Amino acid sequence: MISDYKGTAQLTAAMVLSGTLGVFVVESGASPFNVVFFRVLFGALALGAYVVARGWLRGHGFTPRTLGLTVLGGVFIVFNWVFLFESYENTSISVATVVYHTQPFYVVLLGALLFRERLTGAKVGWIVVAFAGLILVSGVTPGDFASGGGYLLGVGQALLAALLYGLSTLVTKRVTGVRPHLIALVQVLVGIPLLLPFAEFGAMRGTGADWGWLVGLGIIHTGLMYVLMYAAYAQLPTSKIAVLAFVYPAVAMVMDWAVYGHHIGLVQALGVPLIVTASLKVTLAKSRVVTARPTPAPASPVASRR
Q: Buried (b) or exposed (e) across 55-75, using 16+ Cβ within 10 A?
């Protein structure tokens, strides 16, 4: 019981931190590629220090196959962050985060498509409900399609980020016998050479105090958040993890309103409970047929985020 309370507190703290991520991204003033580059750089330093301090590099458990899968998952995770942060610029933190939270449905659909995992009629029905909610939350109108504006692009970027997160989850689920902290460390390390060609270091001149936001993204939203999240995962049932995951979008929406004055409209708000309910139904139905909880993929909170 004590461990359950402790795990709940740890996961709640991790999800609250996830909800503040958007503010750190926007306040840094850096481009999405630069933000992600410095997030993985500082995040690798933070996670690396923690892993070394715990002595987990010895007997790491990686095989050539699982290391390759982890690297592939890292590629998906890194670009998932890029598209999510670009979505913040074109929509808002609130809209991008709620749209991004359709990740569980992509995991189900991709699992059925790529790995022939069972897709029941009930799951299909809840996915339809979720995407009805997505249409409401996105606030996209026929005029947006006609004009091809940035807002529509931003919604698409959030959806693509969710798709990439789903791919990373499916790949990382197949990595067994390795601590999740090591998986996360490898995945952020992958992002350093991957994003180096896209980073614009010249644009960072004069950044000044805004470097604090970038350092925070690495140390707080990658190092500390993952440590709290994985500690909680080891103590909590999947049902509680699924419920607490919605602390993330709730905090993100509050932060977006409190800091930037952004809020979703009444019609958009009607879509939120549809997505939340459908996500819980799909996630909890999935957990009932899984006897052992798989190692969760690192995310933004995802979760994440991811």
A: ebeeebebeeebbebbebbbb
CA proximity to 277, closest of 136, 157, 126: 126
Alpha helices in 173-207 (DSSP H): 180-195
**Contact assessment for residue 85 and residue 35, using Cβ atoms and an 8 Å cutoff:** yes
Looking at per-residue confidence, does 83 or 301 come out higher? 83
Please check whether residue 121 is in contact with residue 283, taking contact to mean a CB–CB distance below 8 angstroms: no
Phi/psi for 67 (5° steps) reads -65, -40
Kindly state the helix (H) or strand (E) to which residue 116 belongs, with its residue range. none
Element (H, E) at 100: helix 93-100
| Cβ neighbours for 18, distance < 8 A, ≥ 6 positions apart | 221, 225, 247, 248, 251, 252, 300, 301, 302, 303, 304, 305, 306
φ, ψ (nearest 5 deg) of residue 134: -60, -40
Q: What is the pLDDT of residues 69-104, one digit of tens each?
A: 999 999 999 999 999 999 999 999 999 999 998 888
pTM of structure: 0.87
Q: How far is the C-alpha of 250 from the C-alpha of 176, rounded, in Å?
A: 32
Q: How far apart are CA 36 and CA 188, in angstroms?
A: 10
- Are 100 and 162 in contact, with CB atoms under 8 Å apart? yes
Helix, strand, coil tally for the chain in percent (to 5) = 75, 0, 25
Alpha carbon 31 to chain centroid, angstroms: 19
